[in-house]
Automatic annotation (TrEMBL):
<keyword id="KW-0813">Transport</keyword>
<feature type="transmembrane region" description="Helical">
    <location>
        <begin position="128"/>
        <end position="153"/>
    </location>
</feature>
<keyword id="KW-1133">Transmembrane helix</keyword>
<dbReference type="InterPro" id="IPR037294">
    <property type="entry name" value="ABC_BtuC-like"/>
</dbReference>
<protein>
    <submittedName>
        <fullName>Metal ABC transporter permease</fullName>
    </submittedName>
</protein>
<feature type="transmembrane region" description="Helical">
    <location>
        <begin position="250"/>
        <end position="267"/>
    </location>
</feature>
<feature type="transmembrane region" description="Helical">
    <location>
        <begin position="9"/>
        <end position="32"/>
    </location>
</feature>
<dbReference type="Pfam" id="PF00950">
    <property type="entry name" value="ABC-3"/>
</dbReference>
<feature type="transmembrane region" description="Helical">
    <location>
        <begin position="52"/>
        <end position="76"/>
    </location>
</feature>
<dbReference type="InterPro" id="IPR001626">
    <property type="entry name" value="ABC_TroCD"/>
</dbReference>
<keyword id="KW-0472">Membrane</keyword>
<feature type="transmembrane region" description="Helical">
    <location>
        <begin position="165"/>
        <end position="186"/>
    </location>
</feature>
<keyword id="KW-0812">Transmembrane</keyword>
<comment type="similarity">
    <text>Belongs to the ABC-3 integral membrane protein family.</text>
</comment>
<feature type="transmembrane region" description="Helical">
    <location>
        <begin position="88"/>
        <end position="108"/>
    </location>
</feature>
Length: 281
């Protein structure tokens, strides 16, 4: 690893990957807790469509990534109840988003792909080893902003996630909080797409959070554990991708995340239910 860090491309990948994984771990915990994993799946397809739309018109793909994911996240929030996107709202937008993705893919491959033939593949599968220094630091800045915002919102968001009605009665701005969370999910999805690609994005959001929830009932412990697991899995994937050139780093990251989640089924712990979670909230 020390030798690998002497290479700029690997150092950029570690910097960006660490920040992105931490943000994905924190965001993913609340996605799992709020039963909004389908939202993460929808935003992964939105990231694909937004990036290809930007490439098709000759813009930086990050413009399309952030505009599409944040915009669609807000749209799903407004269509759902109390800014919590439901399956009906997501399903209504899903086919349309995928159709647009196919349209922009065709437009890009027939008119723009000669300028950057690998861009479309990078959107689908990620290109974390191809990040420049500026792109890596932008990823760090965005991910750090997402992490700070989630930590600030953690307690009221936890309350609203566990019992919406009681939280609203106690004066928690449930609707505004839900919209703010979806904006953070959109920003995290846009940035994480550059690391693992839109096809594998959902795994980075769901697997560490799912493993953390199986290992502890304490919400704040699970929140921290989800971020730590995501970072550890990111480092493992990057190390494997560097050591074995034939293994794509995005695949190695997802393989590590899947193995950790699967391993949690081998650990038995007392079934304490949701009492600890409710008491902490």
């Amino acid at each position: 690893m020390i030798a690998a860090l002497s290479h700029p491309f690997f150092l950029h990948a570690v910097l960006a990957g660490t920040a992105i994984a931490a943000a994905a771990g924190l965001t993913g915990y609340f996605l799992v807790l709020r039963a909004q994993i389908f939202t993460g799946d929808a935003l992964s397809h939105t990231a694909f469509t937004g990036a290809l739309a930007a490439l098709a018109v000759g813009w930086d793909l990050r413009i399309g990534l952030f505009a599409a994911t944040v915009g669609v996240a807000l749209l799903l929030g407004f269509l759902g109840s109390r800014s919590k996107a439901d399956d009906v709202a997501i399903g209504s937008a899903f086919a349309w988003i995928l159709g647009l993705g196919v349209f922009f893919l065709t437009l890009y491959t027939t008119h723009r792909s000669t300028s950057d033939g690998n861009a479309g593949v990078s959107v689908l599968f990620g290109s974390i080893f191809g990040l420049s220094a500026s792109a890596a630091w932008i990823a760090v800045a965005v991910a750090a902003g997402v992490c700070v915002a989630l930590l600030v919102l953690a307690r009221p968001l936890l309350f609203a996630s566990l019992d919406e009605a009681v939280a609203a009665a106690r004066g928690v701005p449930v609707r505004l909080l839900g919209l703010a969370f979806l904006v953070l999910v959109g920003a995290c999805a846009a940035e994480a797409t550059q690391a693992v690609g839109s096809l594998l994005l959902l795994g980075l959001l769901a697997a560490p959070a799912g493993a953390a929830q199986r290992l502890t009932d304490s919400p704040f412990r699970a929140l921290a554990l989800s971020a730590l697991l995501a970072v550890g899995e990111m480092w493992t994937g990057l190390a494997v991708g560097y050591a074995v050139p034939g293994v794509p780093p995005s695949f190695a990251i997802m393989a590590a995340a899947t193995l950790v989640f699967a391993a949690t089924f081998l650990i038995r712990r007392p079934d304490t239910g949701t009492a600890a979670v409710t008491a902490t909230a």
